[in-house]
Design goal:
The complex is a heterotrimer. By secondary structure, chain A is α/β, with parallel strands linked by helices. Chain A has helices at 3-14, 35-45, 57-68, 90-93, 117-120, 125-128, 145-151, and strands at residues 49-53, 73-75, 98-102, 105-107, 112-116, 131-137, 141-142, 159-163, 168-169, 177-178, 185-191. Chain A has a single domain (33-191), classed as 3-Layer(aba) Sandwich (Rossmann fold). In chain A, strands 1-11-6-3-2 form a 5-stranded parallel β-sheet, with helices on both faces. The model of chain A has no long low-confidence stretch (mean pLDDT 95). Chain B is an alpha/beta fold. Chain B has 2 domains: 2-113, Rossmann fold (3-Layer(aba) Sandwich), CATH 3.40.50; 126-241, Rossmann fold, CATH 3.40.50. Chain C is an alpha/beta fold. Chain C is built from 21 helices and 10 strands. Chain C has a 6-stranded parallel β-sheet with strand order 1-10-7-4-2-3. Chain C has a 4-stranded mixed β-sheet with strand order 8-5-6-9, with helices on both faces. The chains are: A alpha/beta, B alpha/beta, C alpha/beta. Chains A and C meet through helix 1, helix 6, helix 7, strand 8 and strand 9 of A and helix 2, helix 3, helix 4, helix 8 and helix 10 of C. Strand 8 (159-163) of chain A pairs antiparallel with strand 9 of chain C.
Chain lengths: 195, 245, 456
Amino acid sequence: MSSRELILKAVAENKPDLTALPEMDLSLTIRYANKIEQFIDKLKSAGATTCHQDSKLVLQNDLTEVKAQGKFIIDLLDIPHSKDWGDLHASQLESLDTCYLRAELGVAENGAMWISEKQMSNRLIPFICQHLVIVINEENIVNTMHEAYQRIETTADGFGVFIAGPSKTADIEQNLVIGAHGSRSLRVYVMGAVS
Amino acid sequence: MKVGLFIPCYIDQFYPQVAIATYQLLKKLGCEVFYPSNQTCCGQPMANSGFSNLTKGCDINFVKNFKGFDYIVAPSGSCVLHIKEHLKDGDNPIELEKIRHRMYELSEFLLDVLKIKHLKASFPHKVGMHVSCHGQRGLHLSSMSELVAPAYSKTEQLLNMVEGLQLLIPERTDECCGFGGTFCVFEEAVSVKMGKDRINEHLLNHVEYICGGDTSCLMHMEGILKRQELGVKTIHFAEILNSEL
Amino acid sequence: MIVKQHAEAAQEFIKDEARTDWHDETLWFVRHKRDKAVNTLPEWESLREWASQIKNHTLSNLDHYLKNFEERAISNGIIVHWASDAEEHNRIIHKIIADNKIDKIVKSKSMLTEECHLNDYLKSRGVKILDTDLGEYIVQLREESPSHIVLPAIHLKRQDVSATFHEHLKTEEGNFDPQYLASTARHHLRERFVESELAITGVNFAIAETGSFVVCTNEGNADMGVHAADIHIACMGIEKLIPKTEHLGVFLRLLARSATGQPITTYSSHFNKPRQGQQMHVVIVDNGRSRQLGRPDFRNSLKCIRCAACFNTCPVYRRSGGHSYHSTVAGPIGSILNPNLDMKANSDLPFASTLCGSCTNVCPVKIDIHDQLWKWRQQIVANGYVTSGKKAGMNGMAWVLSNPKLYRLSGTIVRWVMRKFPLVVNNRLNVWYKQREMPAAPEKSFRDWFKENQET
């Protein structure tokens, strides 16, 4: 018998009597008076900087300024992307300074934003950049993770990630250090309905 | 109502004043109290050490002594919890079930059965509140800091009826004191460290007494307090509630 | 090699009382952060109940879900392996490495690979693995094992980390700044990520309906490894399954809040398919889990999502440190998992507890930890893993306590000896007496008083 067969046989023999999945009354879950405020608050607590704007001006300025610095940046805000970065290897992306991505959805309870593979073009990009900038439309902010999973199709692409802040660690004597192995900073632009 | 008084073995032997206070208090409040004189021990020390197979003698003796009462009351959360969860008697299953349902720890008996609202008691001292784990997490005598739920405490409710008493809560409201039955000797270092840490929190509140509902906890902390000559005394809440005006 | 039992190791740990206080306060603060976080959700207790029932259901239908997961995963291009035990898990991974002639390997946090001692297995075959979680990286440099499943270096102070980094990474001696130390680690590990050929990760949740799995990190090290490397191996115990994607809503809301008091980890990566040109493997491991599943009293322990909330709340763990549990998974959950792996070697663990019950209350999936600790004690004694001294003592106690006359006589004698010949009891042979005074020995027991004063 293969290990697969042995394991499945043991599990089948040893498992308890069948119990049902719970009836989950999601109306019990939290609803925020102001989802956007809660969302922004959570991101700030996680060490991100945020900007809630109706016009695209601040974002445009950000892009212009950063591009002017002459560093390696990737702008993926327009979908379909102007370039396919998919083939780039880690060594070619290592010097990536800033990247701009769009999030499909944000979650108020924890500041998490869903970015699927299509939006990031290359799976490594959101992690290997030094500075990450995410743009999200305010009408795409939901209350909780339950609502998030109802709205998005996490298997639409081969990979997707919820990002809720810049990378961090507290592994040295519980001292919080922002900037572990992923991005050292996160800027989030929450765009108002008008834009 | 006929109340059977269950006095844990170590209270009977080493802290009779707790049992006396419990007895007198129940009588004052109008109960007909009986003390089955052949009671011994609930069996918890053996059971908690992995030897529940050795508690048959204690179990049989317990059922023999305590059948036929309307209520059985004990000034100990851990002993009451043990009886409710682990008492076995294959020969007397009906008696066993009755005993389980009629078994009460003192504070829950006073509030939930006797439903007392006032007490003629006075204890003008600064008292630190120690929450004993088995009574709290096992019998739900008070709310638990881990859970998202409304706060309540049966012991505090009773102590708040006592004139002059100033009740002080330590910062870690319900951390274990470290007694833990035979743990107190088999893991002596951790046990004493836990006890010392609990005491230190009470010292920060400048209490004169540390009060609780389980004499086992109090005995352990008293041992440390005496060794370190800290002057703070331990007391069971039954003694406070029974103190005269 | 004789492994110190918990009591002895704990005693050693506590000798440095200041350090014990620091360890205790640090972990209590994590518990405190957890409390703050969970109290922001009025529905917290409902979430725990849902999670518990989802896991109960999953375990009751586990073979079905395992097959579903495998089928979907394979259809998505993932290669699925099955390992009966630790040895097989290690062999499978080694084979992938050898077949592909891999040299540069990074690993993000996986308690399962620790449990299987993967690093040592590979090292003895000339394969080096780099642990990339900062805490795991630190303990790997120090050649120690992690002392906490979420905060592996919680037992170390910044001075310890600084000394280690000075020795291995040539950081400035005496520079204890966590920012400086973490930046150095970032810099060193970044090169390793970029050049990595194979990356190993754990699995936080595997979803049966889609064949996908989720990996949660704050550091981003799992993703830095797997998205750079040509081969991704994800290791999971059979109990990591959940039925549906929507159930992630429940678990991702519970996990980080329970573990560190954060509302969610920085990254929650959802893996569905390998990227173009990449090999993605999942190794499904039993290693005693199916045996635990067959123990009605203990199968609940398989619901564990490895948050370590039980560690942080445990007053014993905080004052004895993870290494005193001599196992990959320490703390309360370790004490109910490890006796299943080796009852004799781990017979001390269920006794490293006062049964206070705090662990059960913080467990996001409602494992009845303290009840299982009690039940394991019965098993351990029934299997004879107890000293003859303890056994004799217990038998003696049971005999005295079940006999009213003998009980009364013993009590009277003991109290009399304590009053007349205190040195018989107050001496170094009496463990209680080491740091505590004995209780006073009254002349009359309560029963004596009752007979004299109340009976007519």
